[in-house]
Design a protein that fits this description.
This protein is an alpha+beta fold and 237 residues long. The protein has helices at residues 14-19, 26-46, 68-81, 96-108, 134-141, 143-163, 185-193, 208-223; strands spanning 4-11, 50-52, 58-62, 86-93, 113-115, 124-131, 167-172, 175-180, 198-205, 231-235.
């Protein structure tokens, strides 16, 4: 059974830095966070990874099959653009949550950069979830009501996903990414789509970018009616 490699990036002392730039700071922080995220997403994409911003002072990278030197290049980009020191650690796990928790232990120990070797082959399962009828709901009920619905759905999916070892991330609009464990992923997907009126495209590949592309393709096939049902899975050939 393949394992998932995840990396955790910490901006060390970020809260203290934010408090040092004055009270009229939130707009500056949002710009800074967006700039760091943009640069890191570009760096990750160069090596077929994908960044999940989480709290922005902590970011998670889907890093399956990225080499040590490739992750180190991403670390170097983070060091160059961050206003505070950074730490980055990556590890493999039976689930994405296990991998992040292992990386967290290295980060909290004070290690600036750590690449833990994997005992098995690595892979990614990405689920691209989409709420049915959100466009019609927005036109009928307005932006705020549909945004409230999205927050509720995201919260429920994240709670259930985390319990099963998966990691959920809001992508904007009505789109939610879930990085899934390889074991029992079909069962987890069925549990997640029961949260709301959802459909999901699933991509299985060696690298994050390819898995996400396959997931988007699979979801599109449901949207246009090429595939019936609420779940469509595509595996890298």
């Amino acid at each position: 059974m393949p394992k998932t490699r995840m990396a955790l990036l910490e901006l060390v002392g970020y809260r203290e830095w934010t408090e040092s730039i004055g009270d009229d700071r939130e707009w500056k922080l949002q710009i800074t966070q967006s700039r760091i995220y943009k640069k890191l997403q570009e760096a990750a994409a160069e090596f077929n990874g994908f960044i999940m911003p989480m709290r922005y002072d902590y970011m998670v990278l889907i890093a399956s099959n990225l080499k040590q030197e490739e992750l180190f290049q991403i670390y170097k980009v983070a060091k160059e653009i961050s206003p505070v020191p950074v730490r980055l650690a990556s590890a493999c796990g039976d689930t994405p949550v296990d991998a992040v928790e292992e990386a967290w232990r290295y980060v909290r120990s004070g290690t600036d950069f750590k690449y833990a070797e994997c005992s098995d082959r690595e892979g990614v399962i990405a689920g691209h979830f989409d709420i049915n009828g959100i466009t019609a709901m927005t036109r009928k009920l307005g932006v705020l009501t549909t945004y409230s619905t999205m927050l509720h759905v995201i919260s429920e999916i994240e709670t259930r996903a985390h319990y099963r070892g998966a990691i959920a991330q809001y992508l904007g609009g009505d789109n939610i990414l879930v990085v899934l464990p390889h074991e029992n992923y079909e069962e987890i997907i069925e549990e997640l789509i029961a949260v709301h009126d959802l459909k999901v495209g699933v991509g299985i590949a060696g690298y994050a970018r390819r898995a996400l592309a396959l997931a988007a393709e699979a979801l599109h096939e449901i949207r246009i009616g090429k595939v019936k049902g609420r779940v469509n899975v595509k595996t890298q050939e």
